[in-house]
Amino acid sequence: MTENWKRLSVAAALAGTFCAGGMVARSLAGQPQKVVPGAQNPNIPTNMKQYYVAFLARSDKWKDGESEAVVGPLAGKHLEFVRVQSEKGNFALAGPFLDRGRILGMAVVRADSPEDAHTILDGDPFMPTGLVKAEIHPAYLEDLSGVKFEYPIAAKK
After folding, report:
1. How many whole angstroms separate alpha carbon 119 and alpha carbon 64?
2. Which SS3 state, helix, strand or coil, does residue 136 take?
3. Predicted TM-score (pTM) of this structure
4. How far does Cα 39 stand from its chain's mean position?
5. Based on the number of CB atoms within 10 Å of its own CB, is 107 exposed (0-12), middle (13-18) or buried (19 or more)?
6. Do 58 and 126 touch, CB atoms closer than 8 A?
């Protein structure tokens, strides 16, 4: 098994754990909006919060060899977008996937609704090309407020 597949397997196992915890929490509470994770089950962490996990994926319009020529020059503006959203507190986590597959990267978005998450992601310079799309999934994850992005220099204002 390659190192990338090992990492993906671990990530899938963790995602399954988080999803199962969310499903159990919702089923125990009866109503998703009233969930207090861990309140009824000691095996569910009490510090879980709702986020939106966004996967940036190649759209059906993506054509190998051609699309990279369009998206590549936008990479700098995309990274600036990620930094701005991180500094605003809209992204709890963000990063690229390294396997060069259909899913290019992900972000854990702090938003009040899936529509708000889409609105945030629509500001990504990749989106107007139509070559990249955001797949957004609500998720219960551990509180990520302690995760901090670190940049080497202050952003240009």
Report:
1. 28
2. strand
3. 0.72
4. 26
5. buried
6. no
